[in-house]
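chain below, 164 aa
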Amino acid sequence: MAGIPRLYVETEKGNCIRNGRATSECVVIEGNVEVWLKKGEALPGFIGERAKFLIKEVYDRFHIYVDQLSGEVRADAVIVLPDGRTRIYLKRGDRLILLPVEGFTKTLIADVGNRVRRGDAFAAVTTRKGEVHYLRPPRAGTVVFIDEMSNRPHYIYYLLPEEE
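prediction:
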């Protein structure tokens, strides 16, 4: 995938709208209506009090919006893939599957936005003895984030599972 996905996360209205104008790039969602605003653009008058405001965030910080034990998403979020057309919508409370990739040598196979089925390999690890093990998800889903852990040379895949 060429480029980096864009991340928008839920925030208070005042963090992205002041005096009726966007203070930074943000998304306003009310029902089935989405308004994508660039810095300085005016908030449309038809947006009501029940709208949700999502502010642009650094994509590499996605992991702080996910509980690392339960995989629960802590805030509504939208991930826009580099093609600019494909979007992944996450709701507060959605449960992601966190899949660690640890080994001597790691090979990432699936990328963000890829759908992986239960039998598909999303990554491979090679042991010190040269054995290759392919990692497969427990359920089908879409890769929403790959965390390259800074304190260890390993990865964690964040997979949004499909409903069964």
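The mean pLDDT is 90. The chain has two domains: 6-90, 97-161.
thats it, cya
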